[in-house]
Amino acid sequence: MKKVLLIVLAFIAGLNLLNAQSSDARWAWTHMFNWNHYDGDLGTEIFEPSDGTFGYYTGFRYYLNSSFDASIDFGVDFIDFESFEETAGKAFLSVQYKLNNGYLIKEDAFVKPYLTGGVGAISQLDDGHLLYPFGAGIRFGVSEDVDINAQALFNYVGNGNQVGNYNFFQVGLGAIIQINGNKVKDADGDGVEDKADICPNEAGPASNNGCPLPKDTDGDGVIDDNDQCVNEAGPASNNGCPLKDTDGDGVIDDNDQCVNEAGPASNNGCPLPKDTDGDGVVDDEDDCPTVAGSKATKGCPDSDGDGVADKDDKCEHEAGPVSNNGCPELSDEEQTILLEALEGVQFQTGKAIITRASYSKLDNVYSLLQKHEDFKLKISGYTDNTGNEQKNLELSDQRAKAAKNYIVNKGISANRISAKGYGIANPIATNGTAAGRAKNRRVEFEIEQ
Fold it and tell me: Which residues belong to CATH 2.40.160.20 in the chain?
């Protein structure tokens, strides 16, 4: 209880001192209350609730730029674990990389995550040690001058010639308070300090010394003072007025030999007359100029009408979305068929002979392939880690091929099915229990388009 009271008094003293500061606003006063978890080899384990201890540090943080802060901190950790009890003082320098740097997250965002790392010293077990704290944190901007700060640090403690290591993990909660005084002034909030801002009461970019850029009503890059068509966008070469393009083909009328008919610039604005396959897509724009198609598929045929040209469609006989290469996506019922095959296909112990109880599961897979004639099936066999690894690999391969042969014998072309064994690779459960090993002895089925 005395330790907690001591830290609370220190925090209050820090706030009182803060009110007397008169430094640049780049400086801030930091306070952090920590809960420590020893992670060394002196008798306790990390995240053991009964072994947590209290700590506190305070210091200064300096704004370097939008991405980086630097800080110096001093603190004390009250360590009370199984094998030792002491009060350890520490001091460290660190650098923070801020994600709210205007590139990843807005600088004035409410949530301000950061990464931190540094170096320092700690008095621990009657000796001094180098300290390397690193971790991450999140600041929450509760006001203009105050952030609530939550942080997690792993403290690596160099132990020199000592036996054992003294590393510990900290989670903490505190505050970062901007030191009042000569704050950077930016009356118009444009990011340019008033002392460097030629127009302190009008927002403008730093490239223009904080002054607003000349007005450009139509946004065409020609300022209104030089724009003969203020409300219509046009190039500077035409004094800001739009160039006339009657047929909207991108060729201005002055250069368009077919003013009322759209055509490419390569043909002087006239439509290309050549359309070899007669599908309405001119040859210059037709990906399949000798085979009729549609404009939606750039002149190429689309047998199943799904918007994916046959040349790009991996399932040209069945409609499917572009995101799935033109193949239909499996329904929940069809997904269930593959899942049941994964969990339900069994073999005689130590053999590649499918049990009769598994036939129905494979019959369902056969029906799925029969329904979707463009689908291909990949069968992968696996075992647990019991026994000889090479024999496991051979058995898994034999079982995968046994499942393939069953489906092929039902009438599916062999070139639509690949089968291979991988032995003990890619376990989906622990091999340390019977239940886990049972899950690892499996045959997986995967649809390939």
Answer: 2-182
Residues of the chain with CATH 3.30.1330.60: 332-448
Give the pTM: 0.39
Q: Give CB contacts under 8 A, 24+ apart, made by 385-390.
A: 385/424, 385/427, 385/431, 385/437, 385/440, 386/431, 386/437, 389/423, 389/424, 390/423
CA distance 129 to 118: 14
Reported as a single tens digit per residue, the pLDDT across 114-162 is 999 999 988 865 677 888 999 999 999 888 789 999 999 988 877 655 5
Q: What is the CATH number of domain 332-448?
A: 3.30.1330.60
- Integer Cα distance of 282 and 272 in angstroms: 6
Q: What is the pLDDT of residue 301?
A: 85
CA distance 258 to 275: 18
Angle ∠(93,94,95) on CA atoms, nearest 5: 145
Distances (CA, A) of 404 to 47, 280, 366, 394: 49, 46, 10, 15
CATH of 2-182, one of 3.40.50.2300, 3.20.20.70, 3.40.50.10950, 2.40.160.20: 2.40.160.20
**CA 433, CA 437: separation in Å to the nearest integer?**
6
Q: Is 185 exposed, middle or buried (0-12, 13-18, 19+ CB in 10 A)?
A: exposed
Q: Which of 66, 58, 60 minimizes the C-alpha distance to 32?
A: 58
The tens digit of pLDDT for each residue in 386-421 reads: 889 999 999 989 999 999 999 999 999 999 999 999
pLDDT at 3: 44
Written as one letter, the residue type at 369 is L
pLDDT tens track for 16-41: 333 323 234 688 999 999 887 766 66
